[in-house]
Write a structure and sequence with these properties.
The protein is α/β, with parallel strands linked by helices. It contains 13 helices and nine strands. Helix 11 links the parallel strand 7 and strand 8. The protein starts with a helix and ends with a helix.
């Protein structure tokens, strides 16, 4: 009798175990895009090489429903010479997205960095006039946005035009030196003309820090008041284990959306390092736990603001490669994402999807 009871209990255990395993297996194909289906699209910045790698391609398709070209659509790579465009890499990303039913965010149309030198100068090497520069900007935007009309749903039109200094509004770039602030409004006008259906964003970092937040708000308000076709603000979200606080993020979202525009988190990663550039401690268990808690807290803010947030994009796919590995300290490995160097989900991943 005892043997029968034990066998019965063992059989019941096996049935329960197999059932649990089956449930776990059935949910294993769910990705971030599925957990956040009722909230917002979840995207990732990619390179063409990643899309050619079977393992990384599989992870992208499992987890994400939106792509952003990390570099392929920036002005320098896509328009290296006045009369020459290089479309291959951008086309590869857009074609991949079209084949797999993914959304695409275009990044970006006007930025002080990675602007090719020819854009600002004439044949003698002198700075061009405002009229010439705006015409070149117009032709660039018409060509790039026009090529992907109907395939790219949103664009970062102007990137990082606000100064870091507290005593000035605009970054003193060559764009600003030649055109004043007119280039910002014109860029949005040109993008809207090239694709009236595209959702247009101003994209910036430091958008949660009170003083810069207020300057970004000032710029956005000027654009809105001028009737510019600006539909949203992109918060780059290159954040750390401690900064900015959840309250600062929430306050920034509420402030920007008071203008009647939407918010997207456009370049999310959580660095394991603070401002000390001498720190090479690496990914300790303590930092792993802090990163896990941090991601969980941040995504709670995002979920609480789902009526305002229309997309969240991670800047890079996994810890195998991140732009933070070369910035601000070249060669210092960072571990800022939800997937490790073997493309496996980290504890931070669980904190994002467990709600």
């Amino acid at each position: 009798m005892l043997k029968v009871i034990l066998k019965g209990r063992l059989l019941l255990f096996l049935i329960i175990f197999k059932g649990a395993a089956a449930v776990a297996q059935s949910g294993s194909d769910k990705g971030l895009k599925d957990f956040y289906k009722g909230y917002f699209p979840v995207g990732v910045a990619v390179t063409p090489a990643q899309l050619r790698d079977p393992a990384q391609q599989a992870l992208i398709l499992q987890q994400f429903n939106s792509l952003t070209p990390e570099n392929a659509m920036k002005m320098g790579p896509i328009h290296p010479e006045e009369n020459r465009y290089y479309w291959n890499d951008a086309d590869a990303i857009v074609n991949f997205a079209q084949q797999h039913g993914l959304k695409v965010r275009g990044h970006n149309l006007c930025w002080h960095t990675q602007t090719p030198a020819w854009m600002f100068r004439d044949k003698e090497g002198k700075l061009v006039t405002k009229e010439v520069l705006l015409e070149r900007l117009k032709q660039h935007i018409y060509a790039v946005v026009g090529r992907y009309k109907g395939k790219i749903y949103a664009w970062d039109v102007v990137n990082e035009a606000v100064a870091d200094e507290n005593d000035r509004l605009y970054r003193n770039s060559l764009w600003y030196q030649i055109c004043g602030d007119d280039y910002i409004l014109k860029a949005f006008q040109y993008a809207h003309e090239a694709d009236p259906d595209a959702v247009l964003f101003y994209n910036e970092y430091g958008t949660e820090q009170p003083k810069k937040r207020d300057r970004v708000f000032q710029l956005l308000k000027k654009l809105v008041d001028a009737g510019a076709p600006v539909n949203g603000v992109g918060l780059q979200a290159h954040w750390s284990l401690t900064d900015p606080g959840a309250g600062q993020i929430n306050d920034a979202i509420k402030l920007y959306t008071s203008l009647g525009i939407k918010v997207q988190i456009t370049e999310l990663d959580i660095s394991v390092y603070g401002p000390d550039r001498r720190d090479t401690t690496g990914y300790t268990p303590e930092r792993e736990q802090k990163q896990t808690e941090r991601y969980g807290a941040i995504f709670k803010v995002f979920r609480d603001n789902k009526q305002y947030i229309t997309g969240v994009t991670f800047w890079n796919l996994s810890d195998r490669h991140s732009w933070l590995d070369s910035f601000p300290v070249p060669g210092r490995k960072n571990y800022p994402l939800l997937f490790d160097q073997n493309l496996q989900p980290k504890k931070a991943y669980q904190s994002v999807v467990s709600f």
